[in-house]
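Hi all, a correction to my earlier message: I attached the wrong file for 3-phenylpropionate/trans-cinnamate dioxygenase ferredoxin subunit. Here's the right sequence:
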Amino acid sequence: MAWIKVADVAEIGVGEMKRVELPYDDVAIYHAEDGFYATSDVCTHAAQSLTEGRLEGHIVHCPRHGGKFDIRTGEPKSLPCVIPLQTYPVEVRGGEVWIDDEG
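and the right structure:
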C-alpha cells in the first residue's frame, strides 16, 4: 500500500469535493455526511471532471451529460454512464485525509 496525504479535513466541507492531481490519475475526494470517499475524477463516459459537477449524498453528478455515480462503490447509477469509476481506500489521520493510491 502507498498511502498519500491528499487534503486537510478542514479543506473539504460536508457535501463538497476536491480534485487532486496524481501522476497517473486525477482523483476526486468527496466529503459525505458519513465520511470521506475517493474515486477517479474523470467520468468514464465523456472524460469530464466530476468535481466540476455536484454531489448529492453519495451520488456525484457529471456536469457534461448528467450521468451519476455512487461515490462509495464507483458504480454508475444512470445513463449514459455504464463503466464504474476507480475507487480508492480513504483514511482520516489526525485531521488529514489520506488515500491508498494503489486502490
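Sorry for the mix-up. The two ends are 8 Å apart (CA to CA).
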